[in-house]
Amino acid sequence: MSDISDVENALCSAIMKAVYPPVTFDESGLTFDSKEDFDETSTAPVAVNKFDTGVQFNTGAEFDAKKSPSVSGTPIVIYAGWPSEDGLAADLAKGKTHITVFPKAEERNTTRYPEREIVIVPPAPTLTLQISGPVLDNGQKLFDTPGVSWDSGGDYDLGVARDLIVTVGGTVSSPQNLALRINNKFYTYVVQASDTLASIATALAALIEANISGTSVSGPAITIGPTGKLQAARIGGFGTVTKEVRRQERVMMITVWANAPALRDQIAAAVDVALAQEHFLCMPDGFGARLIYKNSMVVDALQKANLYRRDLNYHVEYATTVSKQRAAVIAPSINLNSLLITA
Question: Is the bond leading into 220 cis (omega within 30 degrees of zero)?
């Protein structure tokens, strides 16, 4: 589910991209240090990487304060919450700008969509079922495999041996389900964490053998008895479905705190233009949060403290959701007037 904290984090990520744009390695004059990940404490072998990039990192974990790759060329910190007075004053004195994301009290319920489950992560089964033996290809009118014929009703001739083989392959993982539809009946098996390909085949073969004599198994391969007509072989994994249970709109205040009006305006303009193009924020639950500009305000009342501030207020409409794991349907059936129909 998405929470107000997820909205704050999504906004911080969008602001980070705006004030620290991607570096292009085709400019001149600046270099990186010689440690992996530009971290002086790295224990990895030294690999000197000098790029004429226009950007220079120091030998620690943070950007060099004098040659930061920000839009202003000065260090900028971005975080959710409200700054502490002492910490902000100390950073401003060092030329470091703060950008904060804070939820205002303005909020309204905008729930209007029906509660329905949406597949966010589709099932991804890791097993396979390979069929070999005499089969009828898609669109094939006549069964031309030597030695096999059809009766007048379109079914297999029960007097002909077919030796149809289903081989379990792939990688064993759980949860996962398998189903074979034979003679209008489903034979299903739930994969266990301790299973192997051979044990899965053995379990399925035992179910089939109870109704279709002559069924046998050898390793991961199942040979279906001569009276069995294979109609479907399916594998189903588990996916994630999410349901929206509420929707709300909250006003989020994005504040730029700088030690000079020109610096504040430069950074705030970069944030404002970037967010104006960011119509939706991607939330952790897979839903989008609508981003709509409301207003902005400039505060110069604290000039004596070298504090210059600009607020950007945005409406953010986001969903409260519930996520669940769901199994793929592999053995559907319907009871119609006491007649069981499978598909």
Answer: no
Contact call for residues 130 and 203 (beta carbons, < 8 A):
no
* Orientation angle between helical segments 4-19 and 261-276, nearest 10 degrees: 110
In 155-237, the DSSP E strands lie at: 165-170, 177-182, 185-190, 216-218, 221-223, 230-236
Q: Which helix (H) or strand (E) holds 262?
A: helix 261-276
Closest by CA to 235, choosing from 329, 166, 131, 341, is 329
Quick check: 285 and 245 in contact, CB under 8 A? Answer: no
- pLDDT per residue as tens digits for the range 234-280: 999 999 999 999 999 999 999 999 999 999 999 999 999 999 999 99
Give the list of residues 6+ apart from residue 68 with CB closer than 8 angstroms, or none. 74, 75, 76
Task: Output the CA–CA distances (angstroms, integers) from residue 317 to 1, 113, 273, 311, in the order listed.
Answer: 14, 13, 20, 19
Q: How far apart are CA 275 and CA 265, in angstroms?
A: 15
